[in-house]
From TrEMBL:
EC category: hydrolase
Keyword terms: Covalent protein-DNA linkage, DNA damage, DNA-binding, Hydrolase, Lyase, Protease
Species classification: Bacteria, Bacillati, Actinomycetota, Actinomycetes, Micrococcales
InterPro entries noted in UniProt: SRAP (IPR003738), SRAP-like (IPR036590)
Entry EC no(s): 3.4.-.-
Membership in a protein family: Belongs to the SOS response-associated peptidase family.
Protein's UniProt name: Abasic site processing protein
Length: 260
């Protein structure tokens, strides 16, 4: 799974790297994060028609525009009774997207990229003799070229029935990160990893005219090379959110470090 990641590259750099035409103001205002946790507000990249207002006051759909938007991490299906379900839907398994009602429709019409500088994963170690507590070694996993990773994501809209039609907060935008079986040496740390899409696939993945089955084929594309390093356990506490989380653990618990 992917339960923590970092996203600290500034919005303008993301605009350049991901060929964005627009950056929503609320997405721009999200500061750098080194410890993004489930239900946090995050940045996503989407392609959708620009809304244009005509002289007579009518609003129509304009050209397709790629933009950086703000969403809550943890997908809330449109049919959900309340948004709490989102905390259990931070990840979506690539192998079953077409079979799960909560993910099948977003896969068809609402795909996104989740920009990240890397993510954290915990490796389970052998318990010391005489104890049942299983120690874990956290790792920082990031693109080998130090560029921005584009995780495959899905997003959805949920209408809050308790808010009026003129309430600007009546719609919740939420997102999930697609995961797949770990490979490239990362399976030594954990059996799952986020799907990191290479730049050659971004246009097709984001294109709202591309159907679900065609989009799903992109999820098996070889991921960019990743690097790893052990980091300290303080990353496990959501209150810690600063660049020091990326520093190498000088005294790692793992006796057989996974260094890629």
């Amino acid at each position: 799974m992917c339960g923590r990641y970092a996203s600290f590259t500034d919005a303008q750099s993301l605009a350049d790297d991901l060929a964005l035409a627009e950056v929503a103001e609320d997405a721009r205002l999200l500061g750098p994060r080194w410890n993004v946790a489930p239900t946090d507000d995050v940045r996503i990249v989407v392609e959708k028609p620009r809304r244009e207002r005509l002289d007579d006051g009518r609003t129509v759909a304009g050209e397709i525009t790629r933009s950086l938007q703000r969403a809550r991490w943890g997908l809330v299906p449109s049919w959900a009774k309340d948004p709490g379900i989102g905390s259990r839907m931070i990840n979506a398994r690539s192998e079953t997207l077409l079979d799960k009602p909560a993910f099948a429709r977003p896969l068809a019409v609402r795909r996104c990229l989740v920009p990240a500088d890397g993510y954290y994963e915990w490796r389970r170690l052998e318990a010391p003799p005489g104890t049942r507590k299983v120690p874990k070694q956290p790792y920082w996993i990031h693109p080998a070229d130090d560029g921005v990773a584009a995780f495959a994501g899905l997003y959805e809209f949920w209408r809050d029935p308790g808010r009026s039609d003129d309430d600007p907060d009546r719609w919740l935008v939420s997102a999930t990160i697609v995961t797949t079986a770990a490979a490239g040496g990362l399976e030594r740390i954990h059996d799952r990893m986020p799907v990191t899409l290479p730049p050659a696939t971004w246009d097709v993945w984001l294109d709202p005219a591309v159907g679900a089955e065609e989009a799903a084929t992109l999820l098996t594309t070889a991921a960019p090379a990743m690097s790893t390093r052990p980091v300290r356990s303080r990353v496990g506490n959501v209150r810690h959110d600063d660049a020091s989380l990326l520093e190498t653990d000088a005294e790692p618990l793992d006796p057989d470090l996974v260094l890629l």
